[in-house]
Amino acid sequence: MTSKSGNRPPQSDENPLGIDLPLDPLPGHSSLGRLERVLRRGEFAVTAELNPPDSANAADVFERAAVFDGWVDAINAVDASGANAHMSSVGICALLTRMGYAPVMQISCRDRNRIAIQGDVLGAAAMGVANILCLTGDGVQAGDQPGAKPVFDLDSMSLLETIRTMRDDGKFLSGRKLTSSPSVFLGAAINPFAPPFDFRPHRLAKKIEAGAQFVQSQYCFDVPMFAEYMKRVRDMGLHEKCYIMCGVGPLASAKTARWIRSNVPGIHIPDHVIKRLEGAENQKAEGKRICVDIINEVKEIEGVSGIHVMAYRQEEYVAEIVSESDALKGRKPWKREMRADDRMVAERFEDMLSAENGQTPQEIVEGRTG
Amino acid sequence: MASPLADGRTKPGISPEAMKKKAAEKGAFNPAHLTLARRQRKSYTIRLWSVRHSRFLEWFYSHFANTFLALHPVWKAVGYNRAEKPVTFVERGVKGLLFDCRMCGQCVLSSTGMSCPMNCPKQLRNGPCGGVRANGNCEVEPDMPCVWVQAWNGSRRMNKRDAILDVQKPVDQSLRETSSWLRVTALAAAAREEANRS
């Protein structure tokens, strides 16, 4: 069998037979994916959120994923975030795995009942999805179609338990057997910035008990508050049972920050952040700098295993943010690269199509070969 | 104390319109169809009372459950199926008043600080979600205190205060509109008989 990767230098965490194929199983790992390997090796992981297109065009997904190329370990495919319809997370994940990316499929309980969700988990795992993030989801009132029927058949906790049962016991919720169980790395979300603050670490413990192996947090703009939460998490020993990734993101302007604060529940933005944005000449650049500063503080907190960058509609800044904060600590995540022969063909095409040399394609071919 | 003015105000100068405007300036939730007066009229008084008295209700319920279990021969004589309808009627009335019960048929009030989780707009059995507002209210219904913030407060007052840390199974929708009291009693009676036999 010929190697699909051709003469391309081999990269870590990649199947030599093809970038779209699952990795070899490792002892102690529950998935065949890249993100779990990075986290279990103890490296500081970086994930980012892909803004789902409102289109039926695969190129839109590839274009949006290419922005993160070589800067993140996994890409989150959101499931109708904010209760607005977009391309489905299963669809996005299917496209991303084809291209070798490691997607984190988000599942929210708002739109589908337990029957649909269990089916989707099997389908996604069959398409090579190795990471699933279990969410409850926003209420339908938050979106542009508030007349929709909210389902909420499961909640994030019972969803975690359901998928864990499917993976570890090879059974549906009903007890019916699976012939092959989905090997997935299970994630959940945490929000340390919403009341009741006493309960939040216990809730994380509950999620771990239900099956969470990694968690991504809500946007962190208040580092002392997050540090306080992490202190309690460490006291309970939870950071050893689960990889905790801190959610970060740039704010576009003070006006946006104010709007988010009063209109998006669950996101806590302290006054000093807004003051700093207001005082800046270029608010967008300052928003990015605040994000970098937050990452620098957060990555020093014990028990934080990575960051999750949510740069909604500012995805092009993710690479800059990651590089300026040195979140990867010099490490280079997997990058989609062309095979050597593909690259040669592409270069020749460029040559042939450029009108600079004034030759016809036939003349070029004759000139080169002759 | 100032005597109320003709339109129900206690202080001149702060009319409902002015209060509404002030609230709007603060960016608080202010839908067109709900005037301030109507919002204030809608209350969660009894539900919140139940949470504040969760310890008493826990004590009361344990005795009540024992009484129900003692009546097992009666239920058996009448037939659990025939008792279902009148008991459900009473249960819906009592728990509806105290907890705004939604008759899910599998009551978890003892594990949720006497705050009914089915009143959560997302019907979370393992709450709270990440959208709780800074003032402890719901993200979906901004005037309602978050059911799960209340549950946590209520559970802190109870003897079985750590029951809230158990992971709850998803709701069995086929048990909706059935009596949770009778089901628990039947299960307890069956378990007791099983124990006696062995």
Describe the structure.
The complex is a heterodimer of chains A (370) and B (198). Chain A is an alpha/beta fold and 370 residues long. Chain A is 39% helix and 12% strand. Chain A folds into two domains: 34-337, TIM Barrel, CATH 3.20.20.220; 345-370, no CATH class. Chain A has helices spanning 34-40, 58-66, 89-98, 114-126, 156-169, 200-210, 223-235, 254-263, 271-279, 283-298, 318-325, 340-353, 361-369; strands spanning 45-50, 74-77, 103-108, 131-135, 185-190, 214-219, 243-248, 304-309. Chain A starts with 33 loop residues before the first helix and ends with a helix. Residues 1-5 of chain A have low confidence and may be disordered. With 198 residues, chain B is mostly helical. Chain B folds into two domains: 13-42, no CATH class; 44-197, no CATH class. Chain B is built from eight helices and no strands. Chain B has helices spanning 16-25, 36-41, 45-52, 54-70, 72-78, 80-99, 147-156, 180-197. In chain B, helix 6 packs across helix 8. The longest helix of chain B has 20 residues, at 80-99. The mean pLDDT of chain B is 86. Classes of the chains: A alpha/beta (370), B mainly alpha (198). The A-B interface holds A 109-110, 114, 136-139, 141-142, 150, 152-158, 161-162, 173, 189-191, 194-196, 198-199, 202-203, 205-206, 209-210, 218, 261-263, 265-266, 268 and B 27, 121-134, 136, 139-140, 146, 148-149, 152-153, 165, 167-171, 173.
